[in-house]
Write a structure and sequence with these properties.
heterodimer, A: 173 residues, mainly alpha, Rna Polymerase Sigma Factor, Chain: A, 2 domains, 8 helices, 70% helix, 0% strand, globular, B: 457 residues, alpha+beta, eight-stranded antiparallel beta sheet, four-stranded antiparallel beta sheet, 41% helix, 25% strand, elongated
Chain lengths: 173, 457
C-alpha cells in the first residue's frame, strides 16, 4: 500500500495498475449499491482512478488511512456519477453533493453535518455501523442483513428505531 | 440549521445521506465489509475447537462455542463458492456431533460409549470432519485469491499443522517432547489464524454473503434452548440405570462361617446359594475399610520445636460414608471373594454408581475364575428391604504393555443406580477363583474401586 501511495504522489503511471488490482474489490463493493449496472460500475471505477491520481496530495495520513480516504472518494464519485446519469448534468466536484449550493446553504450544510456528527457519536458501535451502512455506504437492507447475519425484518426494525432516536437527539419529535 | 421537525421521512433520510460526505471514521471503514464478521467467526471457531483446556469444563464449553461460531461464519459465506458451502455442511455435522456429545453426557449411555469401538469410530469421524473443514476452508480461500487476483494467506499452513496433529494423535506417541510439540503447533495455529484474518483485507470485498432467514442471534438462542431441553430430558429420564427393585424377604440367616470371623451383618443380605457355598469353609479373611466422600475439614496443630513454630495441617473426616468389607473365604479347592459395600451415611446425591474390581485372577498366571460373577444391591424403606440385580456386571479382558512384555488382564465392572429415597444403601459382588499352582503359595489380591456420582454435573 505504501508503494502505491508513494507511486501516486510521484505520478508514476505504472502504479495505477497496482491500484486497480488491489483496490478494485473495495471500490466495487462501495459502488455496487449506488450503481446497479456493471458497465456504469466499470466506468465509474475509471473515473475514481483519475480522481485518486488528481487528488492524491489531499490524502493526509493523519486524518485516516488510505482505505478510508479512498472510500470517501469512491463513494462521492459514485454518487456524482449516479446523479449525472439521472439528471444528465456535467461533473460535480465530489465534495459537493448536488447543484452547487449557495454560501448560505454551505454554512447550513456544515452546521447540519456537525449536529448530525454529534448525534451519531452518541450511538453505540453497532448502531454507528448500521447507520453508516445505510446512509453513507447506501447499502440496501438486504445486503446489510446478509452481511450482519440478521434478517431483513430485523434490520428494518433497527433502522426505524435508529431514525426515531436520531430525530429526538437532533431536537425533533 | 435544519429544522428537523419539519422534515418528512424522505427529506430526513436524504438529509442524513447528504450530510455525510467526509471521510468516514476508521473503525467504520474497518468494520463495514462483507467478510469481516464471517471470517472472524470462522477463525475464532477454529481456534476454540483446536485448543483443549482441561479445567472448569472448558474442554466442553470452548469446542461448543467454536462449533457454533464456525457454523455462523460458514453460513454467511455458503453462497460465495462450493468450498464455503461444503464447509457450511461440515460445520453443521460437527455441531450435531458436539451437541450429541453433550446430550449423551447427561445420560447413562455415555458410559457405554466411552472406550467402545463405536465411540472410537465416532472420534475418527469427527477428526475426519475437522480435516475436511480445514481442506474446504483452504480451497475456499484459494478460490477467493484466484477471483480477486490478490495474494492472501489461503490457510495451507493451518491445514498442514492440523494434519501433523492428526498424525501424532494416530501414532499415539507419548512423552514430554510430544507436549512441547503440541504447544508449538497450537501457537503456530493461532498465529496462522490471525494471519488469515488480517491478510484477507481488500480481497475479501469480492465475497458475497448469503441471505439468512433467521438471524445469528436467533440461531444461537435456538441451539442453546434445544441443548437445554435435551439435556434436561436426558437427566430426568435417562440419567440412572433401570433397576428391577423388588421386595426382599431378609430372614435371619446363620452359618458356621460366622465362627471363623465372617461378618454377620453381611450374611443377611447374601443369597441362599452364596451362603450354602461357604458352609464348611476352611478359613475366612476379612478386611474392612471406611472411605470418606466428603471433603473433610482441615485441622491445624501448632507446636514449637528447636525454637521454631511448626504448624501441621491435616484433613479430618468426621464421617466416612462408604464402608467396604472385602472377604476371602477359603473353600475346598477354591476361594470365594466377596466385596460388600455399605453407605453408613446417606450421600447428598444418588445417580449412576459403578464398581471396578481388579480381581485376584488379574494376571491369569496364578488364579483362574471358576464361577459366575454375581451380586445384588439393596436399600431399606419403611421397614422393607428392596433388592435388585446390578444393571450390568461385565468382565473386560485387555492386553497391557509392561516392561516384561504384553500381559493379558481382566477387570470386573458393575453398574447400577440407587434411589434417592430410602436408607442403608448397600450391595455385594462375589466370584470364585481356583489356584492354577496348588503346590505354590499364592497371594489372593482383589482390589475394589467404587465410583460415586456426586452431583447432576
Amino acid at each position: 500500500m505504501k508503494e502505491i501511495i508513494e507511486g501516486l504522489k510521484k505520478k508514476d503511471k505504472n502504479v495505477t495498475d497496482e491500484l486497480l488490482k488491489y483496490y478494485s474489490p473495495l471500490m466495487k463493493y462501495i459502488i455496487s449499491p449506488i450503481l446497479a449496472n456493471e458497465q456504469d460500475q466499470e466506468e465509474c471505477i475509471s473515473e475514481i482512478i483519475i480522481k485518486v491520481w488528481q487528488k492524491i496530495d489531499s490524502f493526509d495520513n493523519e486524518r485516516g488511512t488510505f482505505n478510508a480516504w479512498l472510500t470517501a472518494v469512491t463513494r462521492n464519485t459514485a454518487i456524482n456519477y449516479a446523479k449525472k446519469i439521472k439528471y444528465h448534468v456535467s461533473d460535480i466536484p465530489e465534495s459537493m453533493p448536488s447543484p452547487e449550493p449557495t454560501p448560505e446553504q454551505v454554512v447550513i450544510q456544515k452546521e447540519t453535518a456537525l449536529e448530525l456528527k454529534k448525534a451519531i457519536n452518541t450511538l453505540s458501535e453497532q448502531e454507528k455501523i448500521l447507520f453508516y451502512r445505510k446512509y453513507y455506504y447506501l447499502q440496501p437492507t438486504k445486503q446489510i442483513a446478509s452481511e450482519l447475519g440478521l434478517s431483513e425484518r430485523a434490520v428494518e426494525g433497527r433502522l426505524y428505531r435508529l431514525k426515531i432516536r436520531l430525530r429526538k437527539l437532533l431536537g425533533g419529535d | 440549521m435544519a429544522d428537523w421537525n419539519k422534515l418528512n421521512e424522505n427529506d430526513f433520510e436524504n438529509l442524513l445521506k447528504n450530510s455525510l460526505n467526509d471521510i468516514p471514521p476508521q473503525n467504520i471503514v474497518d468494520e463495514v465489509s462483507p467478510y469481516k464478521d464471517a471470517i472472524s467467526h470462522i477463525v475464532w471457531g477454529i481456534g476454540l475447537t483446536t485448543i483443549t483446556l482441561n479445567f472448569l469444563l472448558l474442554n466442553y464449553i470452548l469446542p461448543f462455542i467454536g462449533a457454533i461460531l464456525m457454523l455462523l461464519g460458514f453460513r454467511s459465506l455458503r453462497q460465495e463458492n462450493k468450498w464455503f458451502f461444503g464447509s457450511y455442511i461440515l460445520s453443521i455435522i460437527r455441531l450435531i456431533y458436539v451437541l450429541s456429545s453433550f446430550i449423551l453426557n447427561s445420560t447413562i449411555y455415555n458410559e457405554f460409549m466411552q472406550g467402545s469401538s463405536f465411540a472410537y469410530s465416532l472420534g475418527v469421524f469427527n477428526t475426519f470432519v475437522n480435516l475436511m473443514i480445514f481442506i474446504c476452508f483452504w480451497r475456499a480461500l484459494k478460490a477467493i485469491k484466484k477471483k480477486s487476483n490478490i495474494d492472501i494467506d489461503t490457510g495451507f499452513g493451518l491445514l498442514f499443522l492440523y494434519i501433523i496433529l492428526c498424525i501424532l494423535a494416530f501414532l499415539n506417541y507419548n512423552g514430554l517432547i510430544l507436549g512441547i510439540i503440541f504447544l508449538i503447533i497450537y501457537f503456530l495455529t493461532l498465529k496462522s489464524l490471525y494471519t488469515i484474518s488480517s491478510k484477507i483485507e481488500n480481497a475479501g470485498y469480492i465475497i458475497k454473503t448469503a441471505e439468512v432467514k433467521y438471524s445469528n442471534e436467533f440461531v444461537v438462542k435456538g441451539i442453546l434452548i434445544f441443548l437445554a431441553v435435551c439435556t434436561i430430558i436426558g437427566y430426568v429420564f435417562f440419567h440412572s440405570y433401570n433397576m428391577n427393585w423388588a421386595e426382599y424377604k431378609s430372614e435371619n440367616k446363620t452359618s458356621s462361617v460366622v465362627d471363623l470371623g465372617f461378618p454377620e451383618y453381611i450374611l443377611k443380605d447374601m443369597s441362599e446359594e452364596d451362603i450354602k457355598e461357604i458352609e464348611g469353609a476352611k478359613q475366612v479373611v476379612v478386611n474392612v475399610d471406611e472411605h470418606p466422600i466428603n471433603k473433610g475439614r482441615v485441622e491445624s496443630t501448632t507446636y514449637r520445636e528447636d525454637g521454631k513454630t511448626i504448624t501441621h495441617k491435616q484433613t479430618v473426616y468426621d464421617a466416612k460414608e462408604l464402608k467396604v468389607t472385602s472377604i476371602g473365604v477359603e473353600l475346598e479347592n477354591e476361594w470365594k471373594i466377596i466385596h460388600y459395600f455399605e453407605w453408613t451415611h446417606k450421600p447428598k446425591f444418588y445417580g449412576t454408581e459403578s464398581i471396578e474390581i481388579l480381581p485376584a485372577y488379574y494376571h491369569f498366571e496364578y488364579w483362574a475364575l471358576s464361577s459366575d460373577i454375581t451380586g445384588y444391591v439393596f436399600y431399606d424403606k419403611d421397614n422393607t428391604v428392596y433388592r435388585a440385580d446390578y444393571s450390568s456386571i461385565d468382565e473386560e479382558k485387555y492386553k497391557k504393555d509392561t516392561m516384561w512384555g504384553v500381559s493379558m488382564n481382566a477387570n470386573i465392572f458393575a453398574r447400577f443406580s440407587m434411589p434417592n429415597d430410602g436408607e442403608n444403601h448397600r450391595g455385594y459382588i462375589t466370584y470364585n477363583i481356583m489356584n492354577l499352582n496348588p503346590d505354590t503359595i499364592c497371594i489372593v489380591n482383589s482390589c475394589f474401586n467404587y465410583t460415586h456420582q456426586q452431583s447432576w454435573l
